[in-house]
Amino acid sequence: MATINVNAKVQDQFYRYKMPKLQAKVEGKGNGIKTVIVNMVDIAKAIYRPPGYPTKFFGCELGAQTQIDKKNDRFIVNGSHSAEKLQEILQSFVEKFVLCNECDNPETTFIVQPKKEKITSVCTACGHQGLVDMRHRLSTFILKNPPLDDSATPQKLKKAQQKQTQQENGDASPDESGFDGWSDDLPKSKQVKDDDWAEDTSEAAVAKRMQELGDGIKGLTHNDDLEKSVEDRFNIFFNFVKNKINAGLDASAEEKGIIGEAERLDIKDRAPLALAELLLTDNIVAQVPKYRILFLRFLANNQKSQKSFMGAFELIVSSYEKVLLPKVAHILKAFYDNDYVEEEIILEWDNKVSKKYVRKDLALKIHEKAKPFTNWLRDADEESDADSEDDVEVVYTHRDATLVHKEDEEKKAKEDAMKNGHSSPAEAPAPAEEEDDDLDIDDI
């Protein structure tokens, strides 16, 4: 899962305070549309706040109703909202209700005093204590729903205030136990101050550590690229795969590295565009099965990615127009047979000619050449539906139809015999044989 710095102002990839990048999922339609924050619980743990607080903050900022289901870990904001927009609002929440006003560290806890209508933020990193802005609507929600963690209580706050006052007046050492940062068990030459344990985050130190890291570790720690635009991240991924190919490496063998880079840059939906441009040529029909496993890592069960891939397909045909335009139907058949693209996506693509990837006149030609295959798909669907209807047999009884018919004839014969004064059907005269008027279908 991609992570970002809790404090967005800090650009150091070694910054210790990280939180997962927000993931949002839009559900429903019309008036019932809503956005589910998929990983709100994980985000809340990273910033040490109940998940209901940032969820309610979204509602306040967007003017939307929210639903907080703690039992099922469902945190919902009514309406359709993008993950990028919600990420911006989350950062605003962090600045207002998480970061310390003095040191900008997120090591803060709330002391909620509903009777006094006061919320105090206490920083365990620097000891700063400040009041939360009570004018914000979220403050009212916090007063009614204080955090369950009682690590910071009014009594502890009072002691912390007394301790801070004593330190300022010089009446007490930094630590009540008398520990000043030195160990009495070691000679002065080997003693280490507590401050020396802190990590050097200067630019020079960060650059030095990055040089000492291997490529794999760099991929895990270096997340500044997530702050860049989608196009910039796409170009980074494109160049990454291109360098692999230029180095003579087999893309299929480098599958894990390619997938890892796409996940790190959060562009899995757009990655097939780059892979198609770099791996597929005028010999695309033969290349489709060769790179099947790699492409399926991005395309399987991902309709958004498949739609991007159909755009890449148009670009490839455009690059090798003379060779590939007559083979469009065969190429689509190869995609279909190798599970690159679902039938639904192909038919949806066929219904709309777009000039997003290639010029309009070429797009029309591509769609025209695709008709034999797309029509075959539609006809196959219709035949399948018709067969399903023909196979349906309506059964009203569990008994054999011939037996039912025979019983009906016997019943009728009995009734006729009774009407003619015979005691049983056996006493009734046999009916005259009629000519067989049934038509034998074999004689036609």
Count of discrete structural domains: 2
Q: From the alpha-carbon coordinates, what is the Rg to the nearest angstrom?
A: 37 Å
Helix content: 40-55%
Biggest beta-sheet profile? 4 strands, antiparallel
Note the overall shape. flat
What distance separates the N and C termini? 72 Å
Number of strands: 9
Low-confidence stretches: 150-154, 171-198, 214-222, 392-398, 432-444
Quickly give the CATH architecture of the largest domain.
Answer: 2-Layer Sandwich
Q: Give the structural class.
A: alpha+beta
What is the CATH class name of the largest domain?
A: Alpha Beta
Q: Work out the strand percent.
A: 5-15%
SSE string: EEEEHHEEHEEEHHHHHHHHHHHHHHH
Strand order of the largest sheet: 3-4-6-5
Oligomer: single chain
Indicate the CATH topology of the largest domain.
Defensin A-like
Helix segment tally: 18
Mean pLDDT rating: 78
